[in-house]
């Protein structure tokens, strides 16, 4: 069945709409909007702008189509995608805060962007995250209350694929029901772990108190995980916003496997950017093509490639680009600065659960069992591969107030925002917390070291370069020790898994964190918003490039601060509002 479907899907672009892989095939029309990047934000914009029949929209995406790709469809195969054609395959610079380790930095490369390859966790963050956006940009329409229509507009909450009773697992009042992105709760529950997680929340309360729905704007506590999936399949920006019906719109054109190398300044007076330079070739000597938008170029290449393209276009710090032989076109020193990322680390405890109810068993270990699970998914879109894995609950918590003082301010957006996250899952023998600092104080950069746009960006997330992040990470590990010391775990807990030890010192934990942490792949901030009259920042609150016209930036790079959340939900929210900002600017809203 799947090979037959795959053949149909491969042929689909010829019948579903205007999908191109070479610019020579593009129609001879004037494009009102050219969207650079068909990722999470770009897909939203492509959909919403082509709702206006008179808008001709071109999307240029560096990667391939998502249609019919098995690993992108099956939630359980999320870990198969790294180092594939759907990953930019980036690495970082040596990380000072990680003992100079170079770490991988996966980003989506293809339609849907990182929403096609990520872990699918759906978390919006806290209301104060968005209120801080509004406060820092002096624009109240970026506040949590003002964004509520867009919070619901993008989402369609969907029952879990196993059909279990979801009472007391989420709050339907805070979810959308008619949006393009399917969200859902865990399926194939593991009662031997779930029961202990919920009992711990009840026994300890405080930092770990049960939270009916972490996506209400107040995420603190222990709650059920939610994910961007539905009916047994991943729900990405591509599957949701670029469906067959959307691709069939005559005013939408998608150019795949094509790299935008620069955005060019228009000739004449003023500073306008409405022309893109691109190539379908694979290197710096490849022939370049240019196209000009009648209204706007919208740069939605993500927090890594957006500054990369800007800098190669001569938009950035004048001295930096000039030293590389790039003509400085617009001096904006904030381009590529303020990279903010969540450091991630895993903490494991040994268990001895005799009443094991783990529904996955050997699915990801024994090839025979894996093949059986694939056959079941092919037949029913059900079974263990229809869900993202063993993670059923997440804890969001804050460190003690005594952590901060006049010289060490709280980096979170407010008292209802988490400092750290613990995604806790387990088997009969192990309890694993995928932990992250979600209100980090450290900052990094995205930069370039040549004038060749095919050279990879220099990604320096600066993980643990601010000692406060280490302090908060140590506290999160000690909080996990308190969590597993609850009566609920007394009969099954053995102790921490080596190299972790009981009662670790600060020095031990610092070494542990620096030697084992990675990036949680939630980069933001490299083209940040600021007030319209501010001398810092890259875009104004309407997302137009400062000191210029014709170019708008819409993706997670515009965030002044990273939300205390996995970032895909916030990108949907921000992009939905941004689409209305663009429509209003051109008198069609």
Automatic annotation (TrEMBL):
<dbReference type="Pfam" id="PF05199">
    <property type="entry name" value="GMC_oxred_C"/>
</dbReference>
<comment type="subunit">
    <text>Monomer.</text>
</comment>
<dbReference type="InterPro" id="IPR036188">
    <property type="entry name" value="FAD/NAD-bd_sf"/>
</dbReference>
<feature type="active site" description="Proton donor">
    <location>
        <position position="522"/>
    </location>
</feature>
<dbReference type="InterPro" id="IPR007867">
    <property type="entry name" value="GMC_OxRtase_C"/>
</dbReference>
<dbReference type="GO" id="GO:0050660">
    <property type="term" value="F:flavin adenine dinucleotide binding"/>
</dbReference>
<keyword id="KW-0964">Secreted</keyword>
<protein>
    <recommendedName>
        <fullName>pyranose dehydrogenase (acceptor)</fullName>
        <ecNumber>1.1.99.29</ecNumber>
    </recommendedName>
</protein>
<keyword id="KW-0732">Signal</keyword>
<feature type="domain" description="Glucose-methanol-choline oxidoreductase N-terminal">
    <location>
        <begin position="302"/>
        <end position="316"/>
    </location>
</feature>
<keyword id="KW-0285">Flavoprotein</keyword>
<feature type="binding site">
    <location>
        <position position="260"/>
    </location>
    <ligand>
        <name>FAD</name>
    </ligand>
</feature>
<dbReference type="Pfam" id="PF00732">
    <property type="entry name" value="GMC_oxred_N"/>
</dbReference>
<comment type="function">
    <text>Catalyzes the single-oxidation or sequential double oxidation reaction of carbohydrates primarily at carbon-2 and/or carbon-3 with the concomitant reduction of the flavin. Accepts only a narrow range of electron acceptors such as substituted benzoquinones and complexed metal ions and reacts extremely slowly with O(2) as acceptor.</text>
</comment>
<dbReference type="GO" id="GO:0005576">
    <property type="term" value="C:extracellular region"/>
</dbReference>
<feature type="active site" description="Proton acceptor">
    <location>
        <position position="566"/>
    </location>
</feature>
<comment type="similarity">
    <text>Belongs to the GMC oxidoreductase family.</text>
</comment>
<dbReference type="InterPro" id="IPR012132">
    <property type="entry name" value="GMC_OxRdtase"/>
</dbReference>
<dbReference type="InterPro" id="IPR000172">
    <property type="entry name" value="GMC_OxRdtase_N"/>
</dbReference>
<keyword id="KW-0274">FAD</keyword>
<dbReference type="GO" id="GO:0033718">
    <property type="term" value="F:pyranose dehydrogenase (acceptor) activity"/>
</dbReference>
<feature type="signal peptide">
    <location>
        <begin position="1"/>
        <end position="17"/>
    </location>
</feature>
């Amino acid at each position: 069945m799947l090979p037959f479907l795959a053949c149909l899907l491969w042929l689909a672009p010829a019948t579903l709409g205007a999908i191109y892989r070479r610019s020579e095939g593009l129609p001879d029309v004037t494009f009102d909007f050219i969207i650079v990047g068909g990722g999470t934000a770009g897909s939203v914009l492509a959909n919403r702008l082509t709702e206006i029949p008179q808008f001709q929209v071109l999307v240029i995406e560096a990667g391939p189509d998502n249609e019919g790709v098995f690993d992108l469809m099956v939630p359980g195969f999320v870990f198969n995608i790294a180092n594939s054609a759907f990953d930019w395959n980036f690495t970082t610079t040596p990380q000072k805060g990680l003992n100079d380790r170079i770490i991988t930095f996966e980003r989506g490369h293809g339609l849907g962007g990182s929403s096609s390859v990520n872990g699918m966790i759906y978390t919006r963050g806290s209301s104060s995250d968005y209120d801080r956006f509004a406060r820092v940009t002096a624009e109240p329409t970026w506040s949590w209350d003002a964004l509520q229509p867009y919070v619901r507009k993008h989402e369609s909450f969907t029952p879990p694929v196993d059909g279990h009773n979801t009472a007391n697992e989420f709050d339907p009042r805070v979810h959308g029901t008619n949006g393009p992105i399917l969200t859902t709760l865990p399926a194939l529950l593991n009662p031997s772990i779930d029961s202990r997680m919920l009992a711990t929340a009840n026994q300890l309360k405080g930092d770990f108190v049960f939270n009916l729905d972490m996506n209400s704007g107040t995420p603190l506590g222990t709650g059920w995980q939610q994910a961007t999936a539905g009916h047994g399949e991943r729900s990405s920006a591509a599957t949701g916003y670029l469906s067959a019906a959307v691709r069939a719109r005559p005013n939408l054109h998608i150019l795949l496997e094509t790299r935008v190398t620069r955005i060019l300044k228009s000739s004449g007076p003023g500073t306008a950017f409405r022309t893109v330079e691109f190539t379908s070739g694979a290197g710096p000597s490849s022939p370049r093509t240019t196209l000009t938008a009648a209204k706007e170029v919208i740069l939605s290449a993500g927090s890594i490639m957006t500054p990369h393209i800007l800098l190669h276009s001569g938009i950035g710090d004048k001295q930096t680009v000039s030293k590389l032989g790039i003509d400085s076109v617009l001096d904006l020193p904030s381009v590529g600065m303020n990279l903010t990322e969540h450091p991630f680390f895993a903490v494991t405890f040994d268990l001895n659960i005799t009443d094991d109810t783990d529904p996955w068993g050997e699915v990801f270990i024994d090839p025979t069992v894996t093949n059986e699970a694939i056959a079941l998914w092919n037949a029913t879109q059900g079974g263990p591969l229809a869900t993202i894995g063993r993670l059923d609950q997440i804890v969001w918590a804050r460190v003690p107030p005594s952590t901060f003082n006049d010289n060490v301010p709280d980096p979170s957006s407010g008292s209802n925002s988490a400092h750290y996250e613990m995604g806790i899952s387990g088997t009969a023998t192990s309890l694993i917390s995928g932990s992250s600092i979600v209100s980090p104080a450290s900052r990094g950069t995205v930069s370039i070291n040549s004038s060749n746009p095919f050279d990879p960006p220099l990604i320096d997330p600066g993980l643990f370069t601010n000692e406060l992040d280490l302090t908060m990470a140590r506290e999160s590990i000690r909080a996990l020790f308190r969590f597993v010391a609850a009566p609920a775990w007394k009969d099954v807990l053995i102790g921490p898994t080596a190299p972790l030890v009981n009662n670790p010192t600060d020095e031990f934990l610092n070494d542990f964190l620096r030697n084992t942490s990675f990036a949680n792949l939630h980069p933001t901030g490299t083209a940040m918003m600021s007030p319209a009259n501010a001398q810092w920042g890259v875009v104004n609150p309407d997302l137009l490039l400062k000191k210029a016209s014709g170019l708008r930036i819409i993706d997670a790079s515009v965030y002044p601060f990273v939300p205390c959340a996995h970032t895909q939900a916030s990108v949907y929210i921000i992009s939905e509002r941004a689409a209305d900002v663009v429509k209003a600017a051109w008198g069609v809203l």
